[in-house]
Amino acid sequence: MLAGAGAATITAKAPVRNKHNRRALAEDVRSEMRWAWRNYREHAWGKDQIRPISGGNESFPLKNHHLGLTLIEALDTLWIMGLDDEFRDGVEWIKANLDFDVDGEVSVFETSIRLVGGLLSAHHACGDPVLLAKAKDLADRLLPSFNASPIGIPHRFINLKTGALRGPETNPAETGTFIPEFGFLSRARGDDRYRAAAKRALVSMFERRSKIGLLADSIDCMTGEWKSRRATIGPPSDSYYEYLWDGWDLLGDRDCLAMYRTCTAAILKHQPLRRGGDLWFGNVDFETGKPLDTEQDELGSFYGGLLAQGGNPAVGRAHTRTWAKVQKRYGVLPESVDSRDMAALSKTNDLRPELADAAFNHWLIDGREEWREIVRDHYLAMKRWNRARYGYADLADVTSNPRIQSDHCPGYWWSEQMKYYYLIFANTPRVDYRKLYLSTEGNVLRGLRRP
Ligand code: DMJ
Q: Which of 71, 133, 143, 218 could cross-link 90 (Cys pair, CB 3.0–4.6 Å)?
């Protein structure tokens, strides 16, 4: 389907300096969320993902069974926006229908960040014990993947019913993106097994870093043998670094802080790639630091915000501004670009939140208007090009005019960018912005204020 045709058009960009315009933007985001939710409610209720062009649906992370992924991802966003009837409706669905005892295989990483995290953030919002119990049930089904490995690194896939494992060849993100969710659960249940498993996996990966301090991006979880030579801050390593910092931020774990600092020092030494005024982080050989290619994945655009959180704000700002230039060129970001000239190497757009995530994190730290402007541009371009008949859609090509949409809306859309947009414009009393902790999936595990 061609985007733009039939979609609501934005006629002017609101200056974000002006309080009234910020309020209008926040209201607009909230009303888009409510509109998308109503479509989901009407056409795909309880399904994992709505197909935004046809109104059909598709399952994820199970192949042929739905777990209500979208509604679980959406819950804390609805709550923050004060869409309380919608929030309650979602919680009621979970209580009446959600059952993880399914003979099917899921990604351990995706299931934890989206479903365990979504249930925990909803529990943080309303305190309902059933949500915590469901999160525990699910985490119990994921835990054997950690325990099966002599080095504590989980397999990539597990069967929710039988515990059968698959995918010993894994990577930093799928090894180390567990500690906030599992740590939160351990605290809430008074049971340290979850946090300890997540921590062991983080440390086990860290101990395998090269002499120059870098991690490659593929490893055998049973032997600890590296299966690649490529070090990257993009996928499939990205959130490993994020969760080193988060282990410190959310749980006060000093080992995580020390590991974050060690990894960051190595990255800042070997991976920066300066071109004109731009700052990228190159993909390099993990033992020699030799550059491997010039591709920059959009998923890596979160990294500037993380650097700012971790105490390197100037470098972080330079990287986020570089990605903001890519946004200026394309409107909606392509999945990857060439660092030499910003040419799109992969022209699709999977409704990604990372640049808005980074800008939001910068704004929480220094309050500069430029971050709100980047987020506003991100939102308006998405509204212009990704809005389809029943919701928001991926783009098949960000360089065509008009853009071409694909019939897919990822679950993280409900949990991530809609939340960042709203929070940066709304100044809602439901959130303590100084305490706010957001997981890699945008789930709030600290800082919600009940009215
Ligand atoms: C999200 O599921 C999470 O942010 C994850 O860490 C990687 N990126 C996707 C969204 O692009």
A: 71
